[in-house]
Write a structure and sequence with these properties.
binds fe (iii) ion; Hypothetical protein af1432; binds 2'-deoxyguanosine-5'-diphosphate; globular; mainly alpha
Length: 188
C-alpha cells in the first residue's frame, strides 16, 4: 500500500492531534529502521497504522478481547493497552494488511513483549521519541537512540514503568518481560 493511501485511511480513524503524532512516528520509524536495519517500508506502514484503534469504543474493544484469540488478562490491566492488540486485528480485517511482521509491530507497540523483532522495537521506540512528544526524559531517550536501539528502549521503559508505578498503576507482565530481557542481554 502506498503512503498516501495508508495515511488517508488512518486519518479517518484519528483526531487531528493523533494524526500529527502518527506522521511523526512514521518519519521517526523510517529513520530508525534505516539506522538499525529493519525494513523501511514495513516500518512506514506499521507506524501509520500503529494507533489505528486508539479511538475505538472501550466496550467494543473489551468485547473483542473476550471473543477473539487475545490474552484475557489484558482486561485486568490498563485499558490504554487494548488499542494495540485490537488494532492489529482491525488493521488486518478493515485495511487488509496481512503481513505478520507489520501486524506484530502494531500488536506489541504499547506493552512490548519478549523476543521483539528489530521492526517491533523500531515502532516501539519511534512511538516514544517522535518529534511531537514532550515529556520528562524524552530528550535523553532521543540522544540514546542515536547509538543503541536497546539502550534507548530500556530508558524509555524505566520512565514508563516508573511513571505508572508512581501513579499506583499495575504493570502488564509483558512489559516487565520486555524490560528484563533487554537488561539481561546488556549484561552479557
Ligand atoms: O497510543 P500512544 O499514546 O501513542 O502510546 P502507547 O500506545 O505507547 O500508550 C502508552 C500508554 O499506555 C502510556 O501512557 C502508558 C500506558 N500503559 C498503561 N499500562 C501500561 C502502559 N504501558 C506499558 N508499556 N505497560 C503497561 O502495563
Ligand atoms: Fe498507541
Ligand atoms: Fe502512538
Amino acid at each position: 500500500m502506498d503512503r498516501q493511501k495508508a495515511l488517508e485511511l488512518v486519518k479517518e480513524q484519528l483526531t487531528d492531534h493523533r494524526y500529527i503524532h502518527t506522521c511523526g512516528v512514521m518519519e521517526t520509524a523510517i529513520l530508525l529502521a534505516r539506522r538499525f536495519g529493519a525494513d523501511e517500508k514495513k516500518a512506514e506502514i506499521a507506524a501509520i497504522f500503529h494507533d489505528y484503534a486508539k479511538f475505538r469504543d472501550k466496550e467494543e474493544m473489551k468485547r473483542m478481547i473476550e471473543s477473539e484469540a487475545l490474552p484475557k488478562d489484558l482486561l485486568e490491566y490498563n485499558g490504554e493497552l487494548w488499542h494495540a492488540p485490537v488494532g492489529a486485528i482491525l488493521v488486518e480485517r478493515e485495511v487488509g494488511i496481512d503481513d505478520a511482521e507489520i501486524l506484530n509491530a502494531i500488536r506489541y507497540h504499547t506493552s512490548g513483549c519478549e523476543d521483539m523483532s528489530t521492526l517491533d522495537k523500531v515502532i516501539y521506540l519511534a512511538d516514544y521519541i517522535e518529534p511531537n512528544r514532550s515529556f520528562p526524559g524524552v530528550e535523553e531517550v532521543r540522544e540514546m537512540a542515536r547509538e543503541s536501539l536497546d539502550k534507548a528502549i530500556i530508558k524509555a521503559l524505566q520512565n514508563t514503568v516508573g511513571f505508572l508505578m508512581k501513579k499506583g498503576q499495575p504493570i502488564y507482565p509483558d512489559t516487565f518481560k520486555f524490560y528484563n530481557q533487554l537488561v539481561l542481554e546488556q549484561r552479557r
